[in-house]
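User: Hi! I have a protein structure encoded as tokens and I'd like to know what sequence might fold into it. I'm fairly new to this, so please keep things simple.
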């Protein structure tokens, strides 16, 4: 098994509570019948959520994504994933906790436009 699949499996086992909350809303085609995968390897990165058919990656970002170094790293990662034809949507933990319905509406709207 390649190292990205091993890493993805480990990340699925220790997901954050925000990721778990969003996953409960996305799994089993619960959002407009879109099939989502969690902690899925794409081109050397493990993304939080992806719908391959909709070409959408959803990243749930916590406080660690606010430093200058992390912002630069995330921008590079986003650019590389988007170069493969995906759109990367970044959601904060706070949005998942405080406005899950709004997050789901934003994801659905992005997919409706794809």
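Assistant: Happy to help. Inverse folding works backwards from shape to sequence: for each of the 114 positions I chose a residue that suits the local structure. Here it is:
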């Amino acid at each position: 098994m390649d190292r990205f699949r091993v890493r993805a499996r480990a990340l699925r086992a220790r997901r954050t509570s925000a990721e778990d909350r969003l996953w409960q809303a996305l799994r089993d085609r619960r959002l407009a019948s879109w099939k989502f995968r969690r902690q899925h390897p794409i081109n050397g990165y493990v993304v939080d959520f992806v719908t391959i058919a909709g070409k959408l990656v959803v990243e749930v970002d916590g406080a660690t994504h606010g430093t200058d170094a992390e912002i630069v790293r995330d921008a590079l990662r986003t650019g590389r994933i988007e170069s493969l034809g995906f759109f990367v949507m970044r959601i904060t933990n706070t949005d998942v906790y405080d406005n899950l319905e709004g997050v789901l509406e934003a994801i659905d709207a992005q997919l409706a436009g794809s």
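A useful reference point when you look it over: The chain has five helices and four strands. Feel free to ask if any position seems puzzling.
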